[in-house]
Amino acid sequence: MNRLFLNKAILMLSTLSAVIGLGFLLWILITLSYKGIMSLHWSTFTNDLVEGGIRNLLVGQFTMALMASAIAVPIGMLAGIYLREYSNNGKLAAVMRNLSDVMMSAPSIVIGVFVFALLVDPFGGYNGWAGIVALAIMMIPIIISTTDNMLSLVPQELREAGMALGGSKHKIILQIVVKAAKVGITTGVLLSFARIIGETAPLLFTSANNQFFTMDLTEQFPSLTVSIYNLATYPDEASRELAWAASFVLTMVVLLINLVGRFITRSKK
Amino acid sequence: MGGTLFKNFSFFSATLSFFILVGIFAVLFNYAQEALQEFGINFLYGETWEVDEEDEGGIFGGWIPIVGTLLSTLIAMVIAIPLAMGIAIFLTEIAHEKLVKPVSIAIELLAAIPSIIYGMWGLFYFAPIVQSTVGGDGVGLLTAGIVLAIMIIPFMAAITRDAMNTVPPVLKESAYAMGATTFEVVKDVVMPYAKGGIIGSIILALGRALGETMAVAFLIGSVMSIPSRITDPTTSIPVLLANNFAEAQDLEISAMYYLALILFVVSFALISLAKFYFFRKTV
Predict the structure, then answer these.
(1) What is the complex's ipTM, to 2 decimals?
(2) CATH fold of A40-268, please?
(3) Which of residues 215-274 of B touch A (CB under 8 A)?
């Protein structure tokens, strides 16, 4: 009797944990949507920060995240290809995998400090390039591990079929193996993009922020997330409302990309 | 020809992680030199953080942010571990097949929400609740710890669930056939089998909590003082860096690099432990 009771109790507590987890998700999403939609106006999207809108911030954040992806995706994919296709899965590959995982978990603020020392301090000021590099450093290990995992799912027979046709190793990799893993890798790229577009800490003292619209990556660059941090701490109501509106837009973008990524994987199956 | 070039490029890309990690360590160590020489190891338990405007120096000690980081992480872990385990058990052993997928997706979406959103939500919605139920100023160690827990729970739950899913069904089925209850199966079959992965997930979540900046920055109060009660405001290493790094100069900025170095080394050690030791089997 006693152990049956204990079992019931534990099962109820476990279910309760799941309910609590979902409850927080709903609570956050509902308050965020309510506050966000109440504070959103059409002009929020057409004005720059200096006029009380987020146009330049959205463009700036997307620019930095896209440029970071342009750096991180090829490097990360090449590294993943090396680990899975060239390294023969030896000791060296195991160490490289682990180091990449360690880098994935490095505190984002430390990466910000590192890039500040590398690209801000020597050049005399915050700039968009520094923000891009910081985001790329965050993204590379995620792409490495996705590519590595997705390539491991490609059946060995496909590679052998390529070899039987007389294909050279890099042709087999690029035209058969990577193609077969295309969907998985695309999902991974989308998810990691969703991750870095919401990052704040690595941008605080790399790109910093800019109230005005700019596409010049050598000066301070507008950032949506850094602006949210600044605006939320201002005492006036208008700033806070803008922070809520910006947070709502950011969260919707992030969740949407996540859902699209998952949908692609599932529709393939 | 193209093949060799391609191989070399991919080899170079694979070594980049190593060089970036070494680069981070070297840069932080180099910029922290001034503070390292001035304060040495005493920096770890110095309680003063004062800039001396005249001689571009001052007295800097990391004790307060170090304690703040450790305490907020401790609170987060105490709350997060049982809840994350519960969610993982729910997803692997209890939930109906049709529930597993949507609940999993919801938990993963919770993990995808940017940390700055947790911080802002916590400041405007959660801090007032803490203030009215437990007292204090609303912002402080407890609020930061709880919101930090909410942030790391989905992450921890997802990895723990994956670890629990590796348990061969045959093992569980034989225990059930012997008349074991679900809890006994979890306790005596699943947990021992998935132990490495579960401990690994806790350590990874611990590393994430230690280095979390934005959620904590909104909620810990950013005050340079040792908390005497759990609701008191204090600061943490990432928060001090986020708020004061940009304005710091001379010896103070060197002390900031020192703090960043401490954070980097600690999280590097933790994550290496998790990866090289606890996840060894699954690699």
Answers:
(1) 0.91
(2) MetI-like fold (1.10.3720)
(3) 217-218, 238, 241-242, 245-246, 256-257, 260, 263-264, 267-268, 271-272
